[in-house]
Amino acid sequence: MIELFKSIQLDKESKTSLYLQLFNCLKELIQDGTLPPDLKLPSVRKLSEALKINQITVVSAFKQLEKEGFAYSKPGSGTYVANSLQAVPESLPTTFLDELYQNDDISVINNDRIKISDQTINFASATPTSDLFPVKDFKLVLNEVLDRDKGSAFGYQDSQGFYPLRESIAEILKRSSIHCNPENIQIISGAQQGIDIISKAFLSQGDYVITESPTYTGAIAVFKSRGAQIADVQMEKDGLNLNILEYTLQKFKPKLIYTIPSFQNPTGCSYSNYKRAEIVRLAEKYGAYIIEDDYVSDLDFENRGFSPLKALDFNHRVIYIKSFSKIFMPGLRLGFMIVPQKLKQQTIEAKHTTDISTSGLTQRAFDLYIREGYWDQHFNFMFDIYKERYFETIHALDGHLPKEVTYSKPGGGLNIWLDMPYGFPVNNLLKHASSNDVVFAPGRIFYSGNCPQSINNIRLSFAAVYTDQIKCGVEKLCAMIASLLDGKDLYQSIRIL
Ligand SMILES: Cc1ncc(COP(=O)(O)O)c(C=O)c1O
């Protein structure tokens, strides 16, 4: 039987990703009856060896077959051919550019001026694709929780969060040198909700918040929606500019400093140890609290070993917020915060008035997921995938980026921030790239006020791009950049959006 699979021809030079090619071949073999219903497909290892391709490519192809109803899997046994007559029709592709939504860019997308399709190489989204979600394992723990907890999983829950989950999280945190008590952990429905709850609890109309400039657009939107004024401080390669930070603290007396110290979104920069200690010291000196948004510090591909601010927080100024969305399933809406004792009660009240509690079923299932060892296993799986994508992106950029464009290698995270030369028409590039099936996030959307004229960065995220698409996507993008730098056709032919 393996001989049949060996005869599958995949074209490594093709613009279609290898996993899609494999998926299409297998789908055809299923549809024409060559592979009959209930036939066991070769194992991922055997097929990857037979076709001399990466195991992840085979896993992705199998997952796509399952998603579209051409295959099914039996836990611990393997993947089997489904009855293709029951295959579900493919739904229309809908891709949500997670961070363009805050801006006028969404109208650009909605008005069909930027098209996202199945073919699009999406460097704009910093979110994992759904084929990587551990649905099968999560289903197992969900079922176990339903049997174990029955109706109590569906009653109103403790607003602070399911206690055993808080215990599991406190245990995991020890690995990042954060030693905290489950009593200081607040479960939230995603980091976005955490930022909102803290703002709701502690900001009044007109209060100042310091943010990095540029920063995560979702945080800017929260602070603005709470009527806060944003004082932004320039982000440098090793963290905030400390002189400007101190000046801003003195001048505006902000209640909060919002920071993403490791692999910052969007710049990918990380704070030096010195700046980590200094920002905590300055917050204490000027009576501000820090929101430390840790969305991907654990994706540390070059072992830089950063210490979270929370681990240096001896005087309880840091509110640590952790998202699971980049590793796990963002739609589950799960995250947590560590809140200083003094702020705890107000935080619980704000959470209660927001949604009473995060879903009990989700919390209980996630707790079991951690306790049964699935979390560590899945983390390692995602780490390896992201790491491969990171190095593939760096390698492709080093080989093809025109010399006028510069960038710093972040060493981890999900984003790479390209510095285009002064006057470079990023909007033209975006328009042209999207009509050639490549999209990215223009740097200007990450600024809270009017973006300075001199800013013309672009953010490339590799989270949602398959490794075998990266080279092709980067090459296409670099060729378009080179063309624009040469002042060729694109300047003339593309109207600025
Ligand atoms: C820096 C940062 N913080 C928070 C979030 C929101 O995460 P969650 O899905 O946990 O709400 C994101 C999402 O992209 C992010 O980039």
In short:
The chain has 497 residues and is α/β, with parallel strands linked by helices. The protein folds into 3 domains: 2-86, Arc Repressor Mutant, subunit A; 100-133 and 377-493, Alpha-Beta Complex (Aspartate Aminotransferase, domain 1), CATH 3.90.1150; 153-374, Type I PLP-dependent aspartate aminotransferase-like (Major domain) (Aspartate Aminotransferase, domain 2, 3-Layer(aba) Sandwich), CATH 3.40.640. The protein has 17 helices and 15 strands.
Report on this model:
There is one protein chain. It contains 17 helices and 15 strands. The longest helix is centred in the C-terminal third of the chain and has 27 residues, at 374-400. The model is unreliable at 86-113 and 489-497 (pLDDT under 50). The chain is globular. The chain folds into 3 domains: 2-86, Winged helix-like DNA-binding domain superfamily/Winged helix DNA-binding domain (Arc Repressor Mutant, subunit A); 100-133 and 377-493, Alpha-Beta Complex (Aspartate Aminotransferase, domain 1); 153-374, Type I PLP-dependent aspartate aminotransferase-like (Major domain) (Aspartate Aminotransferase, domain 2, 3-Layer(aba) Sandwich), CATH 3.40.640.10. The chain has helices spanning 2-6, 18-31, 44-51, 55-67, 105-110, 135-149, 163-173, 191-202, 217-225, 242-252, 273-285, 341-355, 360-371, 374-400, 426-435, 467-485, 490-493; strands at 71-74, 78-81, 121-122, 185-188, 208-213, 229-236, 239-240, 256-259, 289-294, 318-323, 335-338, 415-419, 438-439, 441-442, 457-461. Helix 2 (18-31) crosses helix 4. Helices cover 41% and strands 13% of the residues. With 497 residues, it is an alpha/beta fold. The chain has an 8-stranded mixed β-sheet, with helices on both faces. Pyridoxal-5'-phosphate is lined by residues 98, 126, 190-192, 216, 218, 260, 265, 293, 295, 323, 325, 330, 335.
